[in-house]
Amino acid sequence: MRAFVTRCVLSSVATVLLWGTAPAHALEPVKGKVILTISGKVGEKNTPDGAAFDMAMLEKLPMQKFSAQTPWDKKPIAFEGPLLRDVLAAAKASGTTLKAAALNDYQTTIPADDANKFDMILAYKMNGELIPVRTKGPLFIVYPFDTKAELRSATYYERSAWQLKSLKVE
Prior knowledge:
The chain has about 170 residues and is of the alpha+beta class. The chain contains five helices and eleven strands. Helix 1 (about 1-20) runs antiparallel to helix 3 (about 85-90). The protein is globular and about 40 Å long.
């Protein structure tokens, strides 16, 4: 029994270390339209299949802003949203891989460690405006491309997913 308790404590500590400080409260029920679902290795669920988020839930998380030049736009864009690691912490996600799926059927695989290694955000605003579906919204996983030369490569551009609808944690 003692070994089991030790493993559970170590697992919880590892999850907090991997994803940052976990929220002190349970994930609230969705009240608005679901814009993101996180399934798979999720410890905090508000649906039978995983964690669902509406816009209000994402807006309650600490916001981050940065501007970055992307290969898809001619000018730098100001992105705003919570850090991806904070969203994953809210769901108590624990895994090594994130499988992202978009509304337009685009899929990409992201090493979970990227969420800690880089200040990636789950942007829901571009240049101060909510991102409509027709222009990459409602959610866009964005790396801070301008902060490190290594991020300005096809590897990280392909891991960015706009029109994000779900993440599966494996």
